[in-house]
Amino acid sequence: MDALLQSLIQGVLLGGLYALIGIGMSLIFGIVKLTNLAHGDFLILASYISYSVVAATGMNPFVSLIVVIPVMFAIGYIVQNTMLNRVISKGAEPPLLVTFGISIVIQNLLLYYYTADARNLRSPIATKSIIITDGIRIPYIYLIGFLVGIIVIVALGFYFRHTYQGKAIKAAADDREVAQLMGVNIKSIYGIAMGISMTTAAIAGVLVGMIYNFYPTSGSAYLVIAFAVVVIGGMGSTYGTLAAGILFGLAQVMGAHFFGASAQLLTGYVVLLIMLIFRPQGLFQR
Amino acid sequence: MSEILLRAEDIYANYGDFQAVQGASFEIRKGEIISIIGTNGAGKSTLMKAIGGTLAPKSGKVFYKDTEITGMPTHKLVDLGMSQVPEGGRVFARMTVMDNLVMGSYTPRARKHKDNALERVYDLFPVLKEKANQVSGSLSGGQRQMVAIGRALMSEPELVCFDEISLGLAPTVIKDIYTKIRQINKEGMTIILVEQDVKRSLKTSDRSYVMLKGKVVLSGKSSELAEEDVKKAYFGL
Predict the structure, then answer these.
(1) Has residue A2 got a pLDDT over 90?
(2) Which residues of A106-122 are buried (b: 16+ CB within 10 A; e: fewer)?
(3) Pair B66, B92 in one domain
């Protein structure tokens, strides 16, 4: 019984982190109608940037976010403006291929600069748990990941509902041409949207780096998680992404609980496949 | 006579590979309503796009007051005081009525007066106040058109271009909307109507331009243009 409860808790907590991994990709899909195949690599890029900041200053990985977030926002804004905006009007494939190219370039840049060795952002907190009973313990880092995921998603919801800029992003997602008639500079607003997407990737990247080892090629695994969460939640739906993250996290951990640890990834993807067949528009899309 | 607000000189513009506008010129003075009349494909919508910044004209010049605005991006034109109501009552369908209107006051100049502007739009279209929190996608065609018009007024413009607002609406709804347009004009707004409806355009506007195959083929005071002549020019008879 304790073991089941422990798995349930772990699944839900993991789901918050998964939502955080997927939310940036979901945003860009909903707003720019772009599938960013480099999302996972950007996330890992953020882990490496944090790694360098931590190595140089000795600060806690969490604190390194004050550097990593602005850097990632700027990278997102620049990538959108100098590369993706150029090809965005040429149909769906050219921007998709550009993101694929970016993905490969990031992986190889990381390989060149950091080598293929495993890195991590371990800090003392990564191994501590809140002990509830003998059989049930909540690892701090997962709890933090879950809470941060929820805070980021609620903050985004507030931003889209209550600021001019957030509304402009939503308007551009609804009708790009008419948004321009309102005075929205569409290229700049896309840049800002990508910057926000990269901000979420920065936060996710640091959290992930504190939990798992990472390599220059780790981005692919996170792209698949992001993709799963976005598909289950419905492309572009903020709260759908949160629910989907929790569902996907639960599916994985429950799979591990009932069928053994090696079944964890498999059960997650079986759930994804079932979703794709029966509800391809996602759980929370009209 | 009052000052010239907008002047387009010898505009050429393509719609895809098609030369939709072939040397069209017109001007509008402060406080006027002009109509640009033509059939589907006469080039009037392309002409409006070329002036409104969504399409770069191939040649020709556009002036707003004394500033050349040829090829200027739309978001700068809005800031200068030019506002557009797009064809077909296009609203931000997933956003509420109020958020649609608020988007109209996006430019920094308009933001300061947002609350006043919102009150004026609600006075003009009381039904929008009732439906303020409803998602715009759920409104009727006429109500969407009201949202689109109200939204254009939120930017505190001097000039508003209406692109085929009567398209697809019921005659009684069209009549209501035209009454509101006259009211907006009386309050000082300069207005360009792009229309297919000859009779209504002549009745509402001070001056008219008739377009055929990308050129202005007839123009003059609307009260002095005979409906027969306009129809002939319109169909190219």
Answers:
(1) no
(2) bbeebeeeeeeeebbbe
(3) no
pLDDT at position A150 is 95
A142, two tokens = 């997962």
Counted domains in chain A: 1
Alpha-carbon span A87 to B115, nearest angstrom: 39
**Is B175 part of a structural domain of the chain?**
no
pLDDT lower than 70: segments of chain B: none
* A162 contact partners, CB below 8 Å, separation of at least 6: none
Cβ(A39)–Cβ(A223) under 8 Å?
yes
Least confident of A75-79, A149-153, A238-242, B21-25: A238-242
> Look-up: residue for tokens 């229309």?
B195
- Looking at residue A136, its pLDDT comes to 86
CA atoms of B137 and B123, how far apart (whole Å): 22
Residue range A197-229, pLDDT digits in tens: 999 999 999 999 999 999 999 999 999 999 999
Using an 8 Å Cβ cutoff, are A152 and A20 in contact?
yes
Determine, for residues A181 and B86 on separate chains, whether the beta-carbon distance falls below 8 Å: yes
Nearest Cα of chain A lies from the Cα of B82 at a distance, in angstroms, of 9
Rounded Cα–Cα distance for residues A42 and A24 (Å): 11
Report the pLDDT value the prediction gives residue A236, as an integer from 0 to 100. 66
> Is B161 near chain A, with CB under 8 Å?
no
Res. A286: pLDDT tops 60: no
Q: Are B41 and B216 in contact (CB under 8 A)?
A: no
- At residue A122, the pLDDT reads 84
Partner A contacted by B52 (CB < 8 A)? yes
Q: Answer yes or no: is A129 within a domain.
A: no
Query: Mutate which of B103, B138, B147 to test chain A, going by most A C-beta atoms within 10 A?
Result: B103
Residue A286, domain member (yes or no): no
Per-residue tokens: A266:
């498999």
Q: Structure tokens of A265? A: 């990834």
**Which two three-digit tokens encode residue A173?**
């997602």
* Residue at A156 is within a domain: yes
ipTM, two decimals, is 0.89
